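Sequence in, structure out. Go.
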Amino acid sequence: MRRFLVLALTLLAIPTIAHSEPARWSLDRASFGVDAKGAVTEQGGQASSFLGGTYLSYSMTEQMSAAATVERDFAGHLTIAKVGLRFPIFHLDGGNGRVTAAGNLVSYSDKGAEGIVEPTSWEAGVNGSWRLAENTGTTVLWGIVSAAYDPENARSTYRLGLRYQALGGRP
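Output:
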């Protein structure tokens, strides 16, 4: 848990190299929403699950975003909380989608975490998103896909789903 707090505080303290618009601490750089994903996890066997979640992201620069997510596997009684950084790898179809590299501090909790060796760990991942619907120039619905690996727990997770952006986000 201490590593999780240190990373969260570090993310808040990182000086950003931002463009003049929007302002460095503008809410236009933030977005918040909910998502629903199907997932396949490999950790000493393979399991599939449905994950509901929330996310918060903040565009620190054009080339780096901070993000926090909380996912819940209701059937498996597992909560997965993450905080980390995202770096764009490339854009798809004229900016309608993108692929990012991610590094996260991850925390597993609740009854479903009993078989996890390191309940506070880290993971590396690749995330993809594709614009599905817009409202007044701001994307409100994304198709999402991701693959992540937690080396401390030898845990791979593959996700596919939809994300609704409820608040914020740059148009």
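Check: The chain is about 5% helix and 65% strand. The chain has one domain: 2-12+29-168.
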